[in-house]
Each structure stands twice: as C-alpha cells, then as structure tokens.
Specification:
mainly alpha; 0% strand
C-alpha cells in the first residue's frame, strides 16, 4: 500500500527554503572572499608604492613627484579603510546567512520528523489490520 503524506507540500516548501538559505550563504561567502581579495590587492599596491617611494629617495627626484606618490599612498589608505568596512559588512552577511540556514535546517528537520512519525504510525496501523485479517482467516479455517 502506497503511503501519501498529507503535509508533503509543506515538507517540500521547507526543503526549498533550506536550499535558498544554502544559496544565500554560498553567495555571502563568495562576497566575503571577493572583499578579502580586494583588500589584499590594495595592501599589495600600498606596499609596492612605499617601496617605490623609498627607492626614489636615493635618487634625485623632484619634490612634485614625491608629493604625487605620497598622495597616492594616502588615497590607497583611504581605499583600504573603506575596504575594511566592506569586509566587515560581508562578515556580518555571512554570519546572518549561517543563522538563517540553521533556522531552516531545524524547521525542515521538524517537518521531516513529523512525516516519519506519520509513516511509522501508518505502517503500524496497516500491520495491525493485516494481523486482524489473518486472525479472522485462521478462525474461519478452524471452524
């Protein structure tokens, strides 16, 4: 006998919500990695610019060029500071996505357990029914 759970649509819906939460977490982690890479590139640019600035001190470099390099380093510092803010926001988004996924996993688990309990009750009911039918047949055969 085929068992059809009456609340299967809800279980499917909860499963879809869990899948969406997984996608959201994946997207948030990807964004976090992207922000980390951007920060790393900016810090490398800044380090390279500092090295270039120090190397120009040895040569006779015009003051205007030194000022330009110094201004560029200040600009890089500003971008690095902004990138730290972006990184912090991405970390918060990852944390929120993890919490959302946890909630969806718990919610789905509740519905899956309810379906399993319903299936078990259905199977026990069928088993009792079959046992009663076999008992009736045995009683008829004895008469």
């Amino acid at each position: 006998m085929v068992y059809k759970y009456p609340m299967q649509k809800i279980v499917d819906y909860k499963n879809n919500l869990k899948t969406q939460a997984e996608w959201k977490l994946t997207k948030a982690i990807s964004q976090l990695n992207s922000e980390n890479e951007k920060l790393s590139r900016l810090q490398n640019q800044k380090n390279n610019q500092y090295q270039e600035l120090y190397s120009t001190f040895k040569d006779k470099t015009p003051i205007s060029e030194l000022q330009n390099m110094s201004s560029y380093i200040l600009l890089l510092n500003h971008h690095i500071q902004k990138q730290h803010e972006g990184l912090k926001n991405a970390e918060v988004a990852v944390s929120n996505s993890k919490d959302g996924l946890k909630r969806q996993l718990i919610d789905e688990k509740v519905w899956v357990n309810a379906r399993e309990k319903s299936y078990t009750a259905h199977m026990e009911k069928n088993s009792k029914k079959e046992t009663m039918e076999l008992d009736e047949i045995a009683i008829r055969v004895q008469r």
